[in-house]
Protein 1
Amino acid sequence: MLAGGYSLGVSVRNLAYDRGWSRIHRAQVPVVSVGNLTLGGTGKTPMVEWVARWYRRQGIRVAILSRGYGDFEGVNDEGRVLEENLPDVPHLQDPDRVRIAGIAVEELESQLLVLDDGFQHRRLARDLDLVLLDALEPFGLGRLVPRGVLREPVRSLRRAGVVILSRADLVNESERRAIRAEAERRAGPLLWVEARHAALELVDSSGVSSPVSDLSSRTVAAFCGIGNPEGFRRTLLNLGVVLKDVRTFPDHHPYSATDVAELASWVNGLGVDLALTTQKDFVKLRTDALGGVPLRALRIGLEIMEGASVLEEKLARLLPSS
């Protein structure tokens, strides 16, 4: 019953926008949306960062717009990560993204807007929809929320300008081909890009970095509160660590003093020489140790494996004419 109601609601909402019954507001500058079809982590934040960096390299003033889930001291965890990694790119958070689009253009003189988690937010018009599918669970268990984790049907990929298969390195080539074939069976021909989450560096609470090569053969305990903890676990194993245990928390978990004390006890009990977490979790902890064991964040960046020219050609079309 709930799944049927949700499906009907999604269909009616999309139809209202498709037919023009619901008003779509257009910003004064181009908008690139980064989104997905499913609940949970598909790599939207690294993709947003990649797109913003690409336009900054072209000399374009960019602003990021997001709703702001999981508020933490005024800015959520993903916002903190973007602020750290993109200090020259303003990041505005508000459920009313039409309003903050106007602020970004009129007050910050932005020349292009990146809409974070925007595929379902159709009230703000976009010039390009980038939609991510996670290679580990591309089709949300095949069912809409709440029976599965699809936010809308797979056929909605017809609205995508480019589909990006994230964590593509964690499945083999035949699986990647099968995912693309299934997506195109449901949505028709798609512009297709494949990407991976690349481990860039380790970071301490002061922002001092060290190379990921330092992890080889280290005995590690890891924890995270993200949408796809399995992706984090596999990334660590690919770096050659001896992974003693992984503890997971809900996405956007707000760490309490009790959580930190329990993590310290857990880490000490494992007898490891290093504790690791994600940058998204680390911005809420800001400590260099858990119970005497060094704690570091693994900073991740998106790396295009296949289809870079397809993606860049689409992005280049939105560059302001000189």
Protein 2
Amino acid sequence: MQYDPIKKSLGKIFNRSPFLRIFFYKLLDLLLLRAWHVRNEIRRWVDETPLPAGDKQRFILDAGSGFGQYSYFLTGLNPLWFIDAVDVKEEQIADCNVFFTRVGRKNVLFEIADLTQFSRPDRFDLILSVDVMEHIAEDEAVFRNFYDSLTQDGMLLISTPSDQGGSDVHDHGEGESFIDEHVRDGYNINDIREKLKRAGFAKTEARYTYGAPGKIAWQLSMKFPILMLNSTKLFFILLPFYYILTYPVAFICNWMDTKMTFKTGTGLIVKAWK
């Protein structure tokens, strides 16, 4: 199953104008359950982390920025915040810098960086890592860099697949992951907390996402369309009609997943503090 070619194809379609790019971000926010959870956690962080008197500046790291979806969300929350957005893909970094300049979002800078070597001591009030750590073999080196780069009161927020089938490995024989770019099929909820503690974090929280309703939403919103697009690009024509029929169910399932607590799930939200 190839995921990156589909992302690149969609990126070319929606990158033809700033309006289409923003529309693409809105679609991702609606379709991707992880985006629902991440935005909720960021809003909770904003509400629960009071700013020092007279100081409205915050520094945020988007660690593995990809298309720039979350950097766009963060830059819109407060124009006084500054976001450092890093990724290893040179093409995406250049593309994001051009787009964000065109739309006037000046409080973000996209840079090429390897997270195993990237460190900015005591700089960031929030570090965001969404669907990144499952791609990096040297994850503990990254966690140590995250620890060093956080301010004393800062928070690390990670969204990643769990080891409960988070990459759909059980749907494809011989250990092949649904998302075959991953170096691991997912994290054990206790193992990732232990790795973060070894990196220096004093406090960690982790919870499962993509429970029963989330699995349904993922299959309807992402898995089935991607499988069909991989079989024939003609499905692009039918895609709007597919979502008209299926998205109401996916929307309800996404909402339920953000409101419920699960004993197990195929995704994880992990938070850590110094």
